[in-house]
Design brief:
There is one protein chain. By secondary structure, this protein is mainly β. Helices cover 8% and strands 30% of the residues. The chain has a single domain, classed as 3-Layer(aba) Sandwich (Trna Endonuclease, Chain: A, domain 1), CATH 3.40.1350. The protein is built from one helix and ten strands. Strand 7 and strand 8 form a beta hairpin. The radius of gyration is 16 Å and the shape is globular.
Length: 135
């Protein structure tokens, strides 16, 4: 067998997992050709939705999954640090409509931007239980 590596949940396959999730439910998916603040666009029962895909295997001290939902933004005025001349900024409603969050623990979350406005990370606790969906 020429493929002996073990799967790493999410990791670089996050976009494919998200696209399949929507496609399996009968919604068409498009991926932008140019850099965009979202990873894909999907049809929904409410029209087109801009979706940002996030994956995490990080678990906090309380046993809850933690996911970073910020994006890197180039800023030449920022002194160079580990990120270079980039800074982490939260997404806004003008950037995305929904976060598709894949966790190594299993649950997938569809979190609307309105529920996380201004946040750069989430602890997926009881507050986000209503956004968990079947994988």
């Amino acid at each position: 067998m020429p493929f002996g590596h073990q799967p790493k949940p999410g990791s670089s396959s996050g976009l494919s997992i998200a696209a399949r999730w929507f496609l399996d439910r009968g919604y068409n998916v498009s991926v932008p050709l140019e850099p965009a603040p979202y990873d894909l666009i999907t049809e929904s029962d409410r029209g087109l939705m801009r979706v940002q895909v996030k994956t995490t295997s990080k678990v906090g001290r309380n046993g809850r999954c933690v996911v970073r939902i910020a994006r890197k933004l180039y800023d030449p005025t920022v002194p160079k640090n580990a990120l270079g001349s980039y800074r982490m900024v939260p997404y806004e409603a003008t950037d995305v409509d929904l976060f598709f969050v894949i966790t190594a623990a299993g649950p997938i979350y569809l979190v609307p931007i309105e529920s996380v406005t201004g946040s750069i990370s989430l602890v997926l606790d009881e507050k986000y239980r209503a956004f968990a969906v079947d994988g």
